[in-house]
Design a protein that fits this description.
Elements lengths: L2 E4 L8 H8 L4 E4 L14 H14 L4 E4 L11 H21 L3 E4 L9 H17 L6 E5 L12 H8 L8 E6 H6 L7 H14 L5 E5 L2 E2 L10 E2 L7 H8 L9 E3 L9 H13 L1
Parallel strand pairs: 1-2, 1-10, 2-3, 3-4, 4-5, 5-6, 6-7, 7-10
Antiparallel strand pairs: 8-9
């Protein structure tokens, strides 16, 4: 398995590589900046060189850059939409500068202005962002939990978007197990896992699946509650993850975004995944 975590860049960009290596990660996801702020400065050239050199010698691959939380690529609010498009474009450029192959993004919400209107805005936002940079960084669209007015919780939503991007070779899918489960895609019995993956293949195609966010869920099937849980402690549970880790999902990079609390830390969650995969 190619297994890793979403980790903090902390006080220095290159330190995220150290954190990943200490934890035994072979892949990694990170932010490039404060995920709760619009404004950012260009990364210093020396820091870029330092990060790339440390990444080169680490054998951690691939690395994924996640966009900030504030983005809403389906927003009907002109100011938010413009800042979201510019922020996505910035992350694609930063990934290219850092030698990172993929950017992962949430799609956002139509805010009650209609799903089709929101999906069209997302397509336009992706087209604009992809067309204004000159690198070959891949853009991965993450399925969401199906919360009110959200975009991208169904595989059909993702199919609508990906089929309308002109440079589709640069666009793929990030599959979040918690989000899929609470959006109504069963991932517990083995036959249900296979049914869900067959549905994904029939819509967006498994060839577009480049990353799996491996998260258990506090919410039940179809609950639309976006709350991650420790692997095996949630409603997907150990049975579900044994079956997930027997499926084709195991062949993709697996990134955990699980909690850290008194019950378990991130290293213990990695250990639990390896235990369930070998069971």
């Amino acid at each position: 398995m190619n297994l890793g975590l979403h980790l903090s860049i902390g006080d220095s960009l290159d330190r995220v590589i150290d954190r990943a290596m200490v934890r035994g990660c072979t892949t990694l996801q990170m932010f490039s900046r404060n995920p709760r702020a619009w404004m950012t400065r260009r990364i210093d050239a020396a820091k870029i060189t330092q990060f790339k050199e440390k990444l080169r010698t680490s054998e951690i691959s691939p690395v994924f850059l996640h966009t900030p939380y504030l983005l809403n690529l389906g927003s009907p609010k002109k100011d938010v939409y413009a800042k979201s498009v510019e922020s996505l474009r910035t992350e694609l450029l930063r990934a290219g500068e850092l030698g990172i192959g993929f950017v992962v993004t949430h799609l956002g919400s139509h805010l009650g202005h209609g799903k089709m209107n929101g999906l069209r805005r997302v397509v336009k936002a992706l087209e604009t962002s992809l067309s204004t940079d000159e690198n070959d960084v891949g853009l991965l669209l993450e399925n969401n939990a199906g919360t009110k007015n959200s975009l991208g919780s169904s595989f059909e939503d993702l199919q609508y978007i990906t089929s309308r991007i002109r440079d589709s070779s640069r666009v793929g899918i990030c599959f979040d197990t918690c989000h899929a489960f609470v959006a109504g895609y069963d991932l517990v019995p083995e036959n249900a896992v296979n049914t869900t993956l067959n549905h994904l293949d029939e819509t967006v195609g498994l060839s577009t699946l480049k990353l799996v966010h491996l998260n258990d869920s506090k919410g039940g099937l179809g609950s639309r509650l976006d709350r991650h849980e420790h692997i095996g402690f949630g409603r997907i549970g150990e049975t579900g993850f044994r079956n997930i880790l027997r499926s084709e999902l195991k062949t993709r990079p697996l990134i955990l975004e699980t909690p850290i609390d008194s019950r378990r830390n991130d290293i213990a969650n990695l250990q639990k995944v390896r235990e369930l995969a070998s069971a």
